[in-house]
Design brief:
16 strands, Beta-Lactamase, elongated, about 400 residues, 5-stranded antiparallel β-sheet, Phosphatase 2c, domain 1, 6-stranded antiparallel β-sheet
Length: about 400
């Protein structure tokens, strides 16, 4: 048994592990053959994984000796298989092997969870007498623990591979964001992107185009790889449309309709898309489901809030587009674009951060730079959260006229 335990501690590959289990069973119990069945809990079936000459079979729980053993989770010792009605002789007919006696053992891990069934066939010197049953159960326990260890090791390896894939996806997504914001005379700008996981469903952009200073804030449903792909797709299509000379309305419509045609059902992107004339200081924007849009007016020391101009982008094709909203950024004014990861950040008692707190901070720190205001807002969020975890991506685009 100690030699078997050492052997079972070595292999990490599942197939090699199962072969070791089957060989150990034949060696310890002096049997002609052995087989290993693994539990498919989702299907409620046992799957034959290791056998000398039988391809994969599936047996429902409760059917045959192996199914009854798994269902009852107890050892079954049958000295004469063809005299037991639970024995399925079809396997013998397929293989040409004749089973005389059989020992069927549940493989139960250290947490008491069934992971499979082991069968040992035809003892070389007779039948499996009751005195070998404790030895068989000890072997089955060792095999179950070893099998669980292999599965856990595989899960750790797969988890690490997934982490590496997510890290790569994060690098790709960050590569789509502007590395350096453009320098525009008379304006102070800052952006922040804090995904809730390695990849996020938010995006932003500030870029000089022929049509004006492009301002974008996008937020796809959920967070993770799928939303990251959605916002990256939206971002790329928008840049291409503007590069080809589209105006604000045409770019918005074409991107929306293409997203509606390609995104899976239930997926959409809320997005603010605006073009700022940095000479006249007029901003024209359309918003697909993204809001509130805050315009802090320095002379009045108050915020004007704008709602979305249409439904989220990609939800459905646009049949009629409302005209863009046009506003003027006076000296000291701030355009504050935030995703709902800010507004809907919840404290431990369930209270949300809300719009009023943002407006109060804009009034309180109106003389701060855009970067300083972002730092004040994040600090206030942390104080408000009182340790509650970040559940959604946080992205902000701040544009202040000096």
């Amino acid at each position: 048994m100690l030699a078997v335990t050492r052997a079972l501690a070595a292999p990490f590959d599942l197939t090699a592990m199962l072969a070791e289990v089957a060989a150990a069973a034949r060696q310890v119990l002096r049997a002609e053959r052995s087989s290993i069945w693994l539990l498919d809990a989702a299907a409620g079936e046992l799957v034959l994984e290791i056998s000398a000459d039988i391809p994969h079979l599936r047996v429902p729980l409760g059917t045959g000796l192996v199914g009854v053993c798994a269902h009852d989770q107890r050892l079954i010792n049958v000295p004469d298989c063809y005299a037991d009605p639970r024995f399925n002789a079809e396997v013998d007919r397929q293989s040409g092997f004749r089973t005389r006696c059989i020992l069927t053992l549940p493989l139960i891990d250290h947490l008491g969870v069934l992971v499979g069934v082991m069968q040992v066939l035809n003892r070389l010197d007779g039948i499996f007498t009751p005195d070998v049953e404790p030895l068989a159960e000890a072997l089955a326990a060792q095999c179950a623990v070893a099998l669980t260890r292999v599965r856990m090791s595989e899960a750790v390896i797969q988890g690490e591979l997934m982490r590496q894939e997510l890290q790569l996806a994060r690098e790709v997504q960050l590569g789509t964001l502007p590395g350096v914001l453009p320098l525009v005379a008379g304006y102070d700008m800052h952006c922040t992107f804090l995904p809730a996981s390695l990849t996020g469903g938010d995006t932003y952009d500030i870029a000089l185009t022929e049509q004006g200073l492009l301002l974008v804030l996008g937020d796809a449903t959920g967070h993770g790889i799928a939303p990251a792909l959605s916002v990256t797709q939206m971002h790329a299509m928008l840049r291409m449309a503007l590069r080809l000379g589209a105006d604000l309305e045409s770019a918005f419509r074409h991107v929306n309709d293409q997203l509606a045609a390609t995104l899976t059902e239930g997926r959409f992107v809320t997005a603010f898309i605006g073009l700022l004339d940095t000479v006249t200081h007029h901003l024209r924007f359309l918003s697909g489901g993204q809001g509130p849009i805050l315009h802090f007016q320095a002379t009045a020391c108050a915020c004007t809030s704008y709602k979305a101009t249409s439904f989220p982008m990609g939800a459905m094709p646009i049949t009629q587009l409302r005209p863009p909203v046009s506003i003027e950024l006076a000296r000291g004014d701030i355009l504050c674009l935030l995703t709902d990861g800010v507004y809907e950040y919840e404290a431990p008692d369930g209270e949300q951060f809300g719009r009023a707190r943002v407006e109060h901070l804009l009034s309180q720190h109106q003389l701060a730079s855009a970067e300083e205001f972002a730092a004040h807002l994040l600090a206030e969020l942390q104080n408000f959260a009182r340790g509650a975890p970040q559940e959604d991506d946080i992205t902000m685009v701040l544009v202040k006229r000096r």
